[in-house]
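During the first year of the project, the team set up a workflow for recording each protein of interest as an amino acid sequence followed immediately by a discrete structure-token representation. This format lets reviewers and collaborators read both layers of information side by side without switching files. As required by the reporting guidelines, we include two representative entries from the current panel. The first entry is reproduced here exactly as it appears in our internal archive.
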Amino acid sequence: MGRLGRQDVAIPDRPSVGYSLLNMAPKHVVVIIPVFRDYDRARQTVAAILRCSVPSPFSVRVHVVDDGSGDGTAERLSEQFGGRIEIIGLPENLGRSAARNAGATNISADLLLFVDADCEPSDDRFLAAHLLSIREADVSMGVVEGQDDGFWHAYQQAARVRRDRLARRTFVAHFTTQNVMIDARLFNSVGGFDEAFKGYGFEDRDLAIRLARAGARFTIAPGARVIHRDTLDLAQVCRKMGEAGATTSQIFASRYPFEYRTLGYEAIDGQRHPWRGVLAKLLWPVFQPWTQHDAWLQWRLVPFKLRAGIVRIMVAVSYLRGTLRRHR
């Protein structure tokens, strides 16, 4: 990809620190899958990874990081796959940043591939597609697709179109650690994920910006696709956005004001726009019951754009309410 984003976070045409895989000729790939109380989907994802074809001279090892599940997830995965994977157990739930870092610590690897436990590769060419893509770059961004479940599938597709538009202004709109391969030396040089991001959201975009500032080249791997096996519901989506507004958004906004504004979050920050926060408080009692019973999202008699627009407003209100809860 060419130069994207703001000038001080632009992606150079060639890395300044010499991480090009053309020079490194890497051979060892570690796939890192964090999981928290999600055995069934983690099992499907691991099985799909192990089925993937791996071109020579690469070798692949799967690290599953059990983030303090305490429900037998790690034991069941170990029983299912045995020595074909490595289980890294954390004594307590530390969050996604810490879990991903644990999977990448003290290992010998040329490439790190981060995949969420609920993101199943769509076919056995998944790894080969990433490896082909990253030969010309330092970060290979895969594609995340929704499962074909009606409204939420269409909603996520529409969100991807919006991210494509935003990416013309800031490349981080495309970056997600649900499905991304990164040069291991570059990842370690920037310190991995920042574990200050303990709540939901923004840890992936923070990493992307630090990688870019270290001289990384980014590319999209259209053939490296995963299916996001998450059955969404409106209450869950609103809860996560409220959590992001209350916790991690403050760190991201203070560090990267341009990206915070360009990605659209500044406009729905109740501490920056107090009158919008007041409006969110007034609207939430009306919206909240509709988030608990969201069968109406599948009403095909109501145009999709109208349903999607209402959901976007509800999600924005949830985020606004979250920002009002964070410490000033």
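The second entry, processed by the same pipeline in the following quarter, appears below.
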Amino acid sequence: MSEPLMPQHDPPIALTMGDPAGIGPEITLKCWLQRNQATCPPFLFLGSAELLETCARSLEVEVPIHRLQEPVQARDVFPDALPVLDLPLPAPCRPGVPDSRNAPMVIRSIDLAYDLVRTGQASALVTNPIHKNSLYSSGFSQPGHTEYLAQLCGLDFRPVMMLASERLRVVPVTVHVPLREIPSRLTREGIVHAAEITYLALQRDFDIPAPRLAMAGLNPHAGEAGSMGREEIDLLLPAVRDLQAKGMPIDEPRAADSLFHETARGRYDAVLCMYHDQALIPIKTLDFDKAVNVTLGLPVVRTSPDHGTAFNIAGQNQANPSSLRAALDLAARMARARTADIHSS
């Protein structure tokens, strides 16, 4: 697999369509309407132009849609119109009602966006939310975007998910796992892998030369010296020793209930959490509308808004674009940091 080309000028961000029946079209339009804000870099939508036009009419907003012939035109078009590489939908779209007949174009949007970033025609990949059950009939066999992109990239290791905002960065070591299964799913190797990927990403993509990592204990009070569980002693501490031996500044596991207050957050750049809710509850409490899902370890930059398709409010002009705008902004900053890192090497 060839490395991404590094163009001299920042190309636009490739924004996927996501599920056309979800809130993706609405928040895409709203982000373009906020294009003059500093946190909204130029982007190129890969999906149905007709879908956006229909959505704009229903929202009663003026958003000119410009169908592009070539991605290179996107930056020039963006100030005056929303640039689109048109992927017509096979079936009519009804907001809030997913239709598996449109799945091939949803998948095609991801494939094309990845290819644009890989070849340097786009600087980063931002994905609108998908509905996985609608995609399975079209050959989408992965649990989600992260695994599918890892497959496209030809990776032989598992990427790592980070949730990031201006106030906190968290990395769940296990993700969509039932609570009762977490102790059996945690491994020393898995913890070390997540920490190493996170450390390198903080250096390369977040421009933090010497990242500081924290680790949340699995059990109350981080196990209380084994009286409330031995996972800290048997798994987490050995993983910390492995990481320290590799020169990474990381302390022994801390009680999760005291890791996320303001003073504690000033002591680290990211915290490794042992399970999904341990990571997502604090960041969504602190910054619900602006948290961003970031995939670490890919050869391309990929971010996503930290919410789903929200079928229940699709087409009702209730969707908040803040998380998508934050995802676009973070993707642009990560891409610039990665380019600067390559040029300085």
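For the second entry, the following points were noted during internal review. The radius of gyration is 20 Å. The chain is about 35% helix and 15% strand. Both points are flagged for discussion at the upcoming steering committee meeting.
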